[in-house]
Amino acid sequence: MSVFGSRWVHAPGHVRELPGDAGLPEGFRAAGAAAGLKPSGDPDVGLLVCDGEQPSSAAVFTSSSTAAAPVLVTRERCRLGSLRAVLANSGCANAATGSRGLDDAAKTQGAAAAAAGVSEAEVALASTGAISHYLPVDAVVKGILQARGELRREGDRDFQAAIQTTDRFEKRANLEVELSSGPVRLCAQCKGAGMISPRFATMLCFVETDARLGAETAQLLLGTCVARSFDRVSVDGQLSTNDTAILMASGSSGVRVAADSEDELRLGEALDALLRGLAVMLVADGEGAQRVARVLVRGGGQERVESVARAVANSPLVKAALHGGDPNWGRIVQAAGGALPGPDPLAIDVWIEDRQVCSAGAALPYEEAELARAVSGLEVEYELALPGEGAVTEVFFSDLSADYVALNAHYTT
Amino acid sequence: MSVFGSRWVHAPGHVRELPGDAGLPEGFRAAGAAAGLKPSGDPDVGLLVCDGEQPSSAAVFTSSSTAAAPVLVTRERCRLGSLRAVLANSGCANAATGSRGLDDAAKTQGAAAAAAGVSEAEVALASTGAISHYLPVDAVVKGILQARGELRREGDRDFQAAIQTTDRFEKRANLEVELSSGPVRLCAQCKGAGMISPRFATMLCFVETDARLGAETAQLLLGTCVARSFDRVSVDGQLSTNDTAILMASGSSGVRVAADSEDELRLGEALDALLRGLAVMLVADGEGAQRVARVLVRGGGQERVESVARAVANSPLVKAALHGGDPNWGRIVQAAGGALPGPDPLAIDVWIEDRQVCSAGAALPYEEAELARAVSGLEVEYELALPGEGAVTEVFFSDLSADYVALNAHYTT
C-alpha cells in the first residue's frame, strides 16, 4: 500500500517510494519478538537501534496530563536529541500505573540499554495497549533479549508487527529523497487506531533517516511535520495517554543537511508528505472506519477555524452521516454553530465535494441524489467558509460505524 | 412513567406527582394537530395558550450561532416576560434557512397570534426536525387552525405528541406544589433526543404553572433550574440549533410567589426536581441509549472540573464501554487527561459505583467480575476527584450503541 494513496497527499518530485522490503536506512537495525504480552501470541516487543556514529534525534509526545509511564520516563530522563534506541511494546500501555509504572518502565529501559550497548538515557520507550494494567516486566525483558539476537536492517517489518494492535493494515513506508549532494533514505513505522483488549487507541510513529542532521534540525522538521499530519487527524477525538513520534538520523549516508539550507527544505517536504500519508492511513484504518473525510475551514481567526474544524471532525452526527453516505450538511452547520456559540447568526458557506449547499447560513437548492453519489466514495471533502479572511485549517477524520461501537463496547479479557 | 424515577432525582416533601391525565394548570389550554409535516401522519403542530389575566414568562435558548429561525424570531421579537402562547412544530427545524426562514417563521407567528387572540410579540415559536429544509408554511397554518378548535386544559398530551419526533416515550409531568398560601400546579411537556428523517436531535421543554409570579422571578427560576438540568446532560455532545425552554405562569390560582420569598424557594425546588427529572428522562431516551450514567467531578477550579466532566460524558470510548457494561475506567482517566493537557501528571481518583479503582492516577486492585456487575444496571455512577477543593459538577449522559449509529447513518427521505 502506497503512502501516497490518498488524493490529499502528494509525493514531491524529489521523493521516490521504495518497495516495502527495501529495509531500514543505513545505520539502523530493528527486530520484533513475541513475548506473551498479547494473548494472541503475536509479536509485541520491538527494538530499534541506531548504529550511526553521530546520531541525532527528536521526539514529540501526547499532551495528556495522564500520560503513560513510558512517555514520562522518555520525556524526562532521555537525551531526546541523541537517542540511539527505541524499545516499543504493544499489549500494555503502562498508563494509570503511578510510581510502580515508572519503575517498571525504567527496568525495561535498562534492559534495552544493555541489549543495545548504549546508555539508558539514549533509549526511548513507547507502549500501546490496555490502560490501567501493570507492565509484565519479565516478559518484556525476555522479548528484548530475543529481539537483540535478531536485529537487522530488514527488521523494520518485524518491528512494525510488534507495535501493531488491531491495525487492519501496515502503516509503513520506505522513501528515497534526492538532496543536492546525493540521495538519503527516509523510513517510518507507524501504528494507530487499534486496540488490544479491545480498550484504547494509540498513535506511535518511528522515523529513520541516514541523513546527517543536527538535533535542532531534527526537532524542527519533526515538530513542523507532526503539526501538519498527526495533529490534524481524528478517529474519535480522544487524546491518547501514549502518543509518541520519534525521528532518528544515523548520519550514515554522509549526506549532511544543514540548518536553513535548501536540503533542509527538501527533506522537510519529504517528511511532510510521509507523515501526512501515514496520518491519512491511520484515519483510513480508524476503528470500524469505511471512509476518510477532510474538512477544510477558512475564514477569520485561526482559533475560530480550528475550533469549527475540530467540532465537525468530532461530531458523532457528522461522522454517522459520513458512514451512511448521507450528504446531511445540516449537521455540519449545527456543529459549527455549537463550536462558536453566540447570539449573532454565523454566515457560513458549505461545499461538499465542490458543490455549494449553503450560502451565508441558508440552504441552496441542490440535486439530492447527485450529492448522495458524491459522498459515497472512500474519500469525502467538506469545505467551510466562515466570515473573515486569513486563517485556514484542515482535519482528516473517519466515519462512525456500528463496528466502532462493537469494538469498544465489549470486554474480552 | 414518574419524573422521579431516577435515583438521582428526588421529589421534595412539598411536591406531589399527579396522574398523567390531570391536565394543564388553570389558565392554560393546549392542542395538537397533524398537518402533514411528518411523513408518518403523526401530530406535528402544537398550540399552547395562556388565558391568565396577568401572565408572566421566561425563556432560554440554544447558544448556537447557527440557531434556527424560530429561536431568532422568538428571542428578538417577542416580549419574553409576558408570553401568552407557544406555537411548536415537529417535522422541520427551520434551521439553516436564512432570511426566508425568518419570514416563514414570522408568518406562522402571525397566524398563531390571530388564532390565540393575542399579539405576535406574545407568541413564542419552537421547531424541531430536519435542518436545512424550508418550513411548509401553509401546512403549519392549517395545523394552527385545526388546533385552535381543539384547545383545552386536557390538551397537554396532544401538544406533547405534536412536539415529539423519535422519542420512545413521553417526557411529561404534572405536579402539585404546596406553597405557604395554598397549592399550585406545575406541568411540563418535553421532547428530546429524537429525530425526524432521521436527522437531528433537539430539546424542547414547555412548563406551565398557575402560580402568580413576576417575569423576573420566572426568569430567575427557569435560568437556575435549566443550568442544573438540561445544561447538564449529553447524548452526543451536539449543541442543537433549536433548543428552547419556556416557563409560563398564568397566575390563575391566585397564589402569589413573591421575589426572595420562602415560596419562591419552594417553587424553585419543585421546578428543579421537575427539570432534573425530565433531563434524566431525556438522556434515558437518548438515541439508541440503554443506560444513563452520571459523572460527578470534584476538585479545585470550576472550569477544570467542568471540562473533565464534559470530556468523560462525551467520550465515545467511555460511552461505548458504558454500553457494553464494561468497567473500563482507563478510558475515564484518558478522557480526563485529554481535557486537562499539560506536562504534570494528574493525580486523579476514580470511583465506580462507590468502589475506588484509581488513586492519584494509579490503578488499585479490584474484583473485575464484581465491578462488571456493578456497571450492568440501567444507571451507573462515576465519581472523579481532581487535586484541590471547592468545585463540583455533574453531567448525565447516555451510552453509545450501534443503534445510535444506525439511526444517524441512514438517509430515509
Characterization of this structure:
The structure is a homodimer of 413-residue chains. With 413 residues, chain A is α/β, with parallel strands linked by helices. Chain A has 2 domains: 15-284, L-amino peptidase D-ALA esterase/amidase, CATH 3.60.70.12; 292-409, ArgJ beta chain, C-terminal domain (Ubiquitin-like (UB roll)). Chain A has helices at residues 69-77, 98-116, 137-148, 156-163, 215-227, 262-284, 302-313, 316-324, 330-339, 368-374, 402-409; strands spanning 15-17, 28-33, 45-50, 56-61, 85-90, 123-128, 171-179, 182-191, 204-209, 212-213, 233-234, 244-249, 256-257, 292-299, 349-352, 355-359, 362-363, 379-385, 391-398. In chain A, strand 7 and strand 8 form a beta hairpin. The radius of gyration of chain A is 22 Å and the shape is globular. Chain A starts with 14 loop residues before the first strand and ends with a helix. Chains A and B meet through helix 2, helix 8, helix 9, strand 16 and strand 17 of A and helix 2, helix 8, helix 9, strand 16 and strand 17 of B.
